[in-house]
Amino acid sequence: MLHIYSAENKRVVVDLAATALPPGTVWLDLIDPTKDEEAFVERTVGVDVPTREEAVEIEPSSRQYRDGEAIVVIASILAQTDDVPIATPVSFVLTPHHLVTIRYAEPKVFGVFAAHVERDKSLCADATMTLIHLLDAIIDRMADVLEHVGGEMDNISLSTFRRGNGAERMTNAALAVLLVRIGKAHDLVGKTRISGVSLARLLSFLGAEIDPKGTKEHLDGLAKDVASLTDHATYLAGNITFLLDAALGLINIEQNAIIKIFSVAAVIFMPPTLVASIYGMNFHHMPELNWTFGYPMALGIMVASAILPYLFFKERGWL
Asked: CB burial class (10 A; 0-12, 13-18, 19+) of residue 7?
């Protein structure tokens, strides 16, 4: 899919067989492009479009380079934050007059930024400022995700570790849900850190390659924001590790409580079982067998031998 935006006409529809771009074209957004769309962009813009295989390379020389007058940078952008989060590679190709973005997923920020462009043409005045505004929107989205994760962690901590003294113990189902929530938060923070590191490298390269007046200050400000968000993601990752350790500790406590119940039950029923075993033996000379109150006596001994250990454990606080 190919979306084209201009400073005046906003979103533009083009014929892929055309040999030139519409007048005023600034931003070309390729989403999982076809061969025809890639060929159209390469023919009209005059640059090679990075392929999917090239976009997933992780070495810096493959992610930041010059191609003639064009600057090519690739960053991992957060996507699918409401489902299974991913850090999808997005290629940015900046020429003196055009910005080309190539992506193979649907990060929410691109749709939001495109809607803003259609309402405010100043966001797409020229290629360089369009890239800066788009990066600014991506960083804002990353901040929103980290704020959401921070709130989720506060909710997990509040519902799990700061309950009232009279609160019921957590069930196995509740503990399983707790682990799933912690795991999702950890995955989201991990993908956000990957995106932050990738954006920091991208901004560093752009700062050295882009010259227009006033642009460097924008890029420096974005770089500081990314560094701050990456540090915050590291802090959140440490908190998530603590919550995970605490949750596993709760599970161990629940398991120990269950094992303790079985152990105490075994001790309580051991003496009655011993008494029953003694009087279940088939010896001829057992005087108690001929007593009138032999049977009630045996039952009484069994009941007493069960109650006394229970009371002992209760007094010691083991139950």
From this structure: middle
Class of domain 2-254: alpha beta
pLDDT at 108 over 60: yes
227: nearest Cα among 207, 247, 257: 207
Chain-centre distance for alpha carbon 9:
38
Name the token pair of 236. 């959140």
CA 72 to chain centre: 28
Residue 167 confidence (pLDDT) above 70: no
Written as one letter, the residue type at 142 is M
Q: Return the ∠ at Cα 92 (arms to 89 and 97), rounded to 5°.
A: 170
Structure confidence by residue, pLDDT tens digits, 193-237: 988 888 999 888 888 888 766 677 888 888 899 999 999 998 998
Q: DSSP of 150-177, one letter per residue?
A: HHHHHHHHHHHHS--TTPPPPPHHHHHH
pTM for this model (two decimals): 0.76
Model pLDDT, residue 34: 84
Q: Which residues of the chain form beta strands (DSSP E)?
A: 2-6, 10-12, 25-31, 64-67, 70-79, 86-94, 99-103
CATH number 3.40.50.360 given to 255-316: no
Q: Domain residue spans in the chain?
A: 2-254, 255-316
Q: How many angstroms separate the Cα of 256 from the Cα of each of 66, 77, 251, 260?
A: 62, 44, 9, 6
Q: 240 and 189 in contact (C-beta within 8 Å)?
A: yes
Please choose, from the candidates 108, 125, 133, 132, the residue with its C-alpha nearest in 3D space to the C-alpha of residue 10: 125
Which is it for strands 2-6 and 70-79: parallel, antiparallel or unpaired? unpaired
